[in-house]
Each structure stands twice: as structure tokens, then as C-alpha cells.
Amino acid sequence: MVTQTTSGLIVGMLLFLVAAGLTLIFGVLKVVNFAHGTFYMLGGYVAYSTLGATGSYTLAVLAAAAAMALFGVLFERALIARVYGSNVLMQLLICYAVVLIFDDAVKIVWGPDFHAMGMPPAFQVPPLFVFGGVVPPFYAVLIGIAALIALALGLGLAMTRLGKTVRAAAINPTMVSALGVNTTLLFAVVFAIGGALAGLAGALAAPVRSLSPGMGFSILIDSFIVTVIGGMGSIGGALVAALLIGLLRGFGTIGFPGFTDGLIYAAMILILVFRPQGLFGRRTA
Amino acid sequence: MSKSRHPALRDTIIAAVALVVILLIPAVHHSPAFEDYVIRLAAMALFATSLNLLVGNAGMVSFGHGMFYGFGAYAFALMMQLTPMSLPLAAVLAVLLTTVLALLVGAVCVRLSADYFAFVTLAVQMLFFSIIISWQSLTGGDQGLRGGIPRREFFGFDLGSQGHLYTFCAIVAVLGMLALRHISASPFGTTLRMIRDNENRASFLGIVLWRARLAAFVIAGGFAGLGGVLAALFVSGAYPELADWPNSGQAIFAVMLGGIDTFLGPLVGGMILLALNDVVTRVTEYYGLVLGIVILAFALGLRRGVLDFLRHLLAARAR
Amino acid sequence: MRKRAINRRSVLAAGTAGLLAAPWVARAQGKTLKIGMQSIFSGPIALLGTSSRAGLQMAVDRINGSGGLLGRQIEVVYRDSKGQPQEAARVARELVNSSGCELLIDAEASSGAFAVQEVVRDLGVACIHTASETSSLTADPKIRVATAFRCARQGVHDAIAGSTYLAAYSTEKKFTKWATCSPDYAYGRDTTKQYLEFFKKFKPDLEIITEAWPKLGQPDLTEVITKLLQAKPQALFTLLYAGDLSAFINQGNVYALFSKMTVATPNVDYPVLAAIKNLPAGIQSATRYLETFPDTPANKAFGEAYHKKYNELPTNWSWQTNAGMHFMEAAVKKANSTDGKKIAAALTGLKIDSPFGVNGTLTMRDDHTLVDYAIGWGQTVPKPPYITGVKPAVWGKIVELETDWKKQQHYI
To answer: Angle, to 10 degrees, between the axis of helix B265-283 and the axis of helix B306-318?
Structure first.
């Protein structure tokens, strides 16, 4: 039971990190970032190379987050800024183009085969036994870090000036701009945070998952599901939904091995039909 | 600026001319690759143009259109493999079944507001896809329907021969496009565009919004199913990838690249995408990179589809 | 009238552009002999394509170096289908119809191979599949095609050989409680079922206490690992491969899974071994390609030459395409032609010398599939040769049981 819960928490927490960025970007910028999986993928590869070059996993994680924050800003300024207010299909087109380009770019730089980062030496220790369940230390640390970030995000949005501005901009960007806030800077910051979160998730997941071009795809779909169920723009909603899905996957393999996915999609449909703003989202007009 | 007094006649003539040209090309220059291209384009044109009935005309962005394309392919292939029915009958039935599916799905989705509609269609498609994969005994799961589609002869057509398949697809595609054109140019089409532009006004005029949208969804689904039938004939089978959401994405790109506001836009977009696929894959392994750059060029440079761009250009010149 | 003019103009413009496009003019046949090879070169199983290409290229270089085939130099045209069956079909047609390929070496997996099979059925070109292990491709008379052959290991052969070994191993170690963990798609499900059928036959007291079915390419196997740990089997049979197997071993190590149960898998390829930093010892594994099995100089020479040229070790797919080309070469020489029907006649029952065969030979059987290739099982060690104590499978027994199985499936 403990083992199953921990595994569900891990899947859920990683998913939360990625989905949080997605939902933040949508909440403030009203942009559906279909390229979000690419941030995750690049974060993983950057961490892999940094670990290889420096031997320090901490550095690798920080490098991934920083690199993806920068990438997020560049992406927003160079491409997304041009299609604010356009048809959502234009945004989709641009994001998808970026996905295509970077899937191949990764192939060129790191090769088409899969890479395995391997567990950093610090964590190559036997697992802990908690209440009859098995908990690897690395995963315990991972859950801890993700929880801290969730807390920081939540507090940051609620209490800091920046956080309040971000929330205000999510409700009424024109007003915020009229009040003298530099929305250009704000939007870039939001993308930086979103990118950093996804990159961080990629770096945290890298020791155990395989890295390959196109790995952003499945996490993107899952993040969408989380964002829809949790509510577009709601960080708290993303947390709850991500944990729900993680736990469902964790326990689902006992009951319905083949059809956990189908259940999740059905849940998404039900939410969209009966409560489209998600569990915690705000109803848009 | 005079308008033709018989637009329906004009369209029919254009279609007839186009069909004759297409059918004559193999007589002038026989190229199997070109014929393959046209066969695939036939399927893609129906798929993308039917999507544009929703996207461009009704303002309904559907991310899940591929499910009808895929369903049409599977329904047709299954009927041909499991029953001795004739090919045209199987095709018609497949399209009818797809329209029923579109009715069921539309009933659930169509009343939602724009953003949510897009996501729910995506969710339904993903659910449909996971059913295809899980229902291995019927659909063959991820391996698809294997063993080929028996090409039973009908009206002198033997679709096992590439020439006949080419002719058949050209005829079906041109007729299908003509039908879509009539629908789009009809008062119903005007209603859809009115709903797209200002749904409140449309509703004040007494139009029942959800009924019009549902009708559009069902019609679009049916034509996508017809495209799926042609796709099944090309690969001689049916595979889950036809119903997967990257395939829906292909139709969206065709619409965006060719022009959302012009009837032939999706056709042109499809031509570009398929041609790019054929050409680029011969030259480099990095097809994604090239396609991504091309899409960016369109999205950032032209900022609209090719035919829309041309129309704006010519309209500007005329002033 | 403008709208009408633009409609017509756009139709004409589109049509002319279409006509003028050069790629659709089929190129004339020249002195070079073009062979088409398609596979998956992108995504999580890109290794399939890259190692197939490497294996094929080695064979082609050898042939070209000794004067070519029927006096013609071979040129291989490669295409990536990205694992999409409709793209695989299009590519196969394009290779034959426009790029002037006279022969096909098809290294597509699963559904791609079936799609290519239908194209081959239509076009009548000679084709050797070198990656698909699904039995029905050649065993099912409805799917079999006159000019298509398979030079690759077959699911049912591996199932018989593997379960023979594992049944003996289980009896020796007194294991009866097993679990399975295989990817949830046709290959995973069908092959696991095949293995278990024979396994239960050889060891009736076998008990499968739990089954796990992760999705192919699923990044997170934690829930699967925890499920297995909870069930406490004595041994685990898994069909995960490539990146998934690597992820499974890495994630399993974190949970010390390998100290809690013996793991058996047929899929430990060299690249997986190279990618894993802490390979547990004692994994019961089949030899997909192993330099030391068959323990012959010819086999070792192949491995070394491959390593020298590509800086990595061969995979199962490498030897299969290499041998496939060897078969194609022999058949073309025998038929003195590249005509599909003639090659099909030449290939049926053809025997060639090969370092990958049990007794130094490989045979292409009447039902268009490969037999007599080396299958062995042994256990892993963390350093080269990586698998030791290899016990070879007995082909007489394999064929006997395979025939029973085919009758059971109503293939014969």
C-alpha cells in the first residue's frame, strides 16, 4: 500500500511540475503551450550532459532549470509574442513547429538512440522500508523537492508582489497594463517560470527514465489532461489533478491493466461536459 | 465586380474540368509516384476540407477530427474483410456509420463553448484511439487490420490496379469536394458563417445554434469518413495511426497552410504537406526539422494560408 | 468575377505546380542495382533502424568490394517511416515505383511490416523482412505473400526455446511462482502468451501470480515495479526491450528489485547493456546477438568488424539484415535475375553459410521464414562478454513444437 502510494505520488509530482507550468502559462497568457513537452525533454538532456561534464547532479538540475527558463523567454519573445490574440490554431501551429524542430535537433546533437542517465552516485543506496513498503531515497527526495516547489509557487502567487501581479494579469491583462505594469516583462517571466518547472521535471526524471527524441509527447498529453481536470490557470487544481492521475495509474495497474488510460480520458470528457472549468478553475465567459 | 448568376453551375463546371484534367494526366505522363500522390491527396483533401467546414465556416475548432477519418477506414476495411459485400456498398455504409458516430459524439460536444469544445473533441478522439488499441480481437490492436482489403470488382473497376484506384479516388474526391462546396455555398453555409461571426445575432434571428452546429459536425464527420475509406484503400488495411491525434493535427495544418477562408485552401494545404513529405524524405532524414521551419515561415511570414494570402494580395492590388 | 477567377487560377496553378514537380518523374534504371531499405530511424526505437542499416551496409560493402551483384554495384536507398504504417506503405511504393529499387529489404517493425507486405503483394517485388518477429507474417497463409520472405527470428521459435530453458532452470532452482511484465501491445501480449503456453506445457506446476502490462514507451515504470514487489514472485519474465528495458533496470535497481527475484528476458541487446550503468548479475537472458555465441571465429570477426566500423556492438537487427542481404545475394545469383517470382523460387528452401547459424548455415524454409539460427540462453555478468554459460536451443524440438502450434492456429 505504501509502495503503491509512493509510486503514485512520484508520477503525480513530476506530472504536477510540468502541468503547473502549462496551467500558469495558460492562466496568464491565454496561450496553450503545445510545445511544453519539449521543455521537459530538453531539461532532461541538458541535465544528462551537465552530469556527464561535471559529475554533479545538483548542478545538472540547476542547469536544466536555468536553461529552460532562458529557452522559455526566447520562445516567448521570438515566437509566441507574435501570435497573442491570434486564432488558437496559429499558436498550435507555431508550438508544433517548435516541437518538430527540436525533436530533430536533439537527434542531431545527442543521436537518435535512447540514453540512460543512471542514478547519480549519491543516491545509489538501498531503499528505505517504511510501514512495510519500499521507498527509494531518490524518490523521497524527489517528492520533497516537488512539494517544496508547490509550496513556493502557492505562497509566491499569494503573497509576493510579483505573484499578485501575475494573478491580476490572469484576470484582466488590459487593466494590469493600464496600471503601469510592464506586461511584456511579466509575460516573459511567466514563460521563464513555466519553462523552468518543466525543465526541472525533466532533470529530476532523467535518472530513472530513458531519454529519447520525442519523449515530450506523452508528458504533454498527460499535462493537458491534468490542466483540464484541475482547471486551466489553477496551480492548486493542477496539484490535485496530477496526484489523482498519478495515484490512479499507481493503483490502476492492479485493476484494469489495459484500460486506465480509457478511464482517464472518460474522466476528462465528463469534466469538460459537466464542469468545464475543471475542479478548481475559474469559469471563463 | 459582378457575381455569376449561377454559382452552383459554375462550381460544377470547374469540378468537371478539374476531373477531366486529372484523369487525362496519366495518359500524357505515366508516373506511379504521381498517382500515389493523387490517391493520398484525395483522402487528405476530403479530410481537411470537411474539417474546414467546422473550423473556417462554423468557427468550431475540433482537435479530434481524425477519429472520423479513422473510423471510416476501419469500418470499410472490416466490412470488406469480414463480409462478401460489394465495394461501393461497403464504402457507403462506412460513411453512414461514421455519420452516426459523428451524431453521437456531436450530441455530447457541440453545446460547449469554443475552448472546451476543442479539448473535448481531443479527449473523445483519444478515448476512441485507446478503444481501437484495446479491442484487439476486432481491430487487430496496434498492428491494425492485416492481410489486405480484398478488391472485389465493381462496375468494371478493379481497385487492385493502380490506374483504376487513381481514377476511382479522383472521381470520389472531386464529387465529394463538389458536394462540400454546395453545402458551404448554400444558405446553411451562410448560417454557419453567421454563427461564427456573431452567435448572438444569429440566435436573435431565430437560428437554433446547437442544431446548426450539430448538423455541421455530422456532415464534416461523414466526409472525413469518406476520406478514411480512400485512405484504407491506399494502405489496403486500416491502422490505428489513422485515428491518432497527430493525424488530426495534419488536417489542421493543411487548413492553416492553405487558407482557412478559402474553400480550396485545405486542398492546397494538403498538396503542400504531401508534396513536402514526398520530396523532403528523399533528401534528408530530418524531415521534422524542415517541416517545422516551413510551418514557422508560413505562420510568421505569411501569417495566413497561401490562398488567403493570395486573395488579400489581389484584393489590395485591385484598390 | 474575381472570386471565380481566383478559384480557377488557384486550381490551375496548383495543377501546374503538381505536374512540373520533378520528383514524380521516375528515374530510369541504370547500371547500379538499387535496393530499398526502410525502417524506423526516429523515436524511442530508432536503434532498430540505425543498427539495421549498419548491418546491411556491411554486407553491401562486402558485395560491392568483390565486384558487385551480377556485375552491378549495389546502392541502398534508405527511408524512415517513423513507425507509421501508412507512411511505411507509401515509402515502399515510392522506393519501387519512383526511386528505381528492384529489391526490398524491409526492416520495419510490427504494423509497418504488415503494411509493406500488402504493397509487396500488389507490386510483386522481391522483399525480405528483417525485423518483424510476428509469426503470422509468414505462418498465416492469408497474410503470406509469394515474393515476401522473413530473415529474422520468429516469436514462436524464441518462445519454445526460451520456455524450454526457463522450465529447466525453474526446476533446478525449485521456482514455481512467476510474474510477467510485458509491453501492452500486440508483440508484448501475443509473445507473452506464446511463452506461457509452452512454459506451462514443460512445467505444469507453473503459477503466474501477477501480470504487469506497461504501455510501450511508458516513461515511468515505478507503478509496475511496486506492483511486482508487492506480489513477491520468485522470478519475473519480461519482454520489455530497448529504452523500456533500460528504464526498467535503472528504476528496478532503485528498488533493489533484482535482489528480490530472478529476472528472465529474451531482450538484452548490447546497446541496452551499454546504456545501463549498473547491470545486475544473474539476469537469465537470451542471446539476441552475442559475439561469443556461436563461439566461432567467423562470428567473432563479424562483431569486431562491426565494432571497428560503427564504434558500437551489433544488435539482433544488425545480424538479421546482414544475413538478409546475404540471402538476397545468393538468390539473385541463383536466379540470375532481380525478378520477383524468380527470386522467390530461388529463396524457397535456400541454405547459406553464415556465422549466425547453429551449424554454420542458415536456411530459408518453404514457408518463407528463417530457421537454424543461433538461439541460446545464459546469464548476465556486468562486464564483457555480458552473457555467460550459454546453452544452445535444439532445433529439432523447436520445429516439432512449432508445427503443432501452427496446426493449433489453423495455419496448416
So the answer is: 120
DSSP C357: B
Nearby residues of A40 by Cβ (< 8 Å), 6 or more positions away: A18, A198, A199, A201, A202, A205, A215, A216, A219, A220
User: Do A213 and C229 count as a contact with CB atoms less than 8 A apart?
Assistant: no
> Which of B3, B146, B278, B286 best probes binding to C when mutated, by most C CB atoms within 10 angstroms?
B146
**What is the per-residue pLDDT for A252?**
65
- Asked if the Cβ–Cβ distance from C211 to A257 is below 8 Å, we say yes
In terms of pLDDT, which residue wins out, B245 or A252? B245
Q: Can you list the residues of chain B whose pLDDT is less than 50?
A: 1-2
Q: How, if at all, do strands A133-135 and C235-238 pair?
A: unpaired
Q: Chain B 36-65, CB below 8 Å of chain C: which residues?
A: 36-37, 40
Q: What is the DSSP string of A201-256?
A: HHHHHTTTSEE-TTTHHHHHHHHHHHHHHH-TT-HHHHHHHHHHHHHHHHHHHHH-
Question: CA dihedral defined by A67, A70, A74, A76, rounded to 10 degrees?
Answer: 110
Give the domain range for residue A211. Answer: 2-216
Every domain range in chain C assigned CATH 3.40.50.2300: 26-153+296-374, 156-287+375-408
CATH architecture of C156-287+375-408: 3-Layer(aba) Sandwich (3.40)
Question: Does B120 reach chain A within 8 Å, measured CB to CB?
Answer: yes
Does some domain include residue A155? yes
**Residue of C45, C213, C254 for testing the chain A interface, max A β-carbons within 10 Å:** C254
Superfamily classification of domain C26-153+296-374: Response regulator (3.40.50.2300)
Instruction: Tell me, yes or no, whether B230 lies in a domain.
Output: yes
C-chain residues within 8 Å CB-CB of A112?
41-42, 46-47, 49-50
Grid look-up 502450434 returns C405
Q: What is the pLDDT of residues A188-235, one digit of tens each?
A: 999 999 999 999 999 998 887 888 888 888 889 889 899 988 888 788
Size of interface B-C (CB pairs under 8 A): 146
Strand C207-212 and strand C235-238: pairing? unpaired
B315 vs A: CB within 8 A: no
**Which pLDDT score, from 0 to 100, does residue C30 have?**
58
Could you tell me if C93 lies within 8 Å of chain B, comparing CB atoms?
yes
pLDDT at A256: 55
For residue C136, which residues of chain B lie inside 8 Å, CB to CB?
Answer: 146
Considering only the beta carbons, identify the residue of A224, A261, A276 that sits closest to B130: A261
Task: Quick: pLDDT tens for C122-157.
Answer: 999 999 999 999 888 999 999 999 999 999 999 899
Give pLDDT tens digits for A45-67: 999 999 989 888 889 999 999 99
CA distances from C169 to C192, C209, C279, C289, C377 (A): 18, 18, 21, 22, 10
- Find the closest chain C residue to A134 by CA distance: C255
ipTM, two decimals, is 0.86
Domain range spanning residue B224? 31-243
Q: Which of A104, A209, A264 to probe by mutation at the C interface, max C CB count within 10 Å? A: A209
Q: Is residue A251 part of a domain?
A: no
Q: Which residues of B touch A224 (CB under 8 A)?
A: 119, 122
Chain C nearest C-alpha distance from B50 (Å)? 18
Read off the pLDDT of residues A105-147 as tens digits, 9 standing for 90 and up: 998 999 887 888 877 777 777 777 777 666 778 888 888 888 8
Q: What is the domain count for chain B?
A: 1
A contacts of C230 (beta carbons < 8 Å):
3-4
Q: Do C247 and A210 touch (CB under 8 A)?
A: yes
Measured between alpha carbons, how far is B233 from B33 in angstroms, rounded to an integer?
16
* B308, part of any domain: no
User: Contact, B205 vs B74, CB < 8 A?
Assistant: no
Q: Is residue B213 in some structural domain?
A: yes
Mean pLDDT on C292-312: 92
How many domains, in total, are found in chain A?
Answer: 1
Specify the DSSP class assigned to residue C153.
Answer: -
Q: Tell whether C15 is within 8 A of chain B (Cβ).
A: yes
Position A224 in a domain: no
Q: Is the pTM of this model over 0.95?
A: no
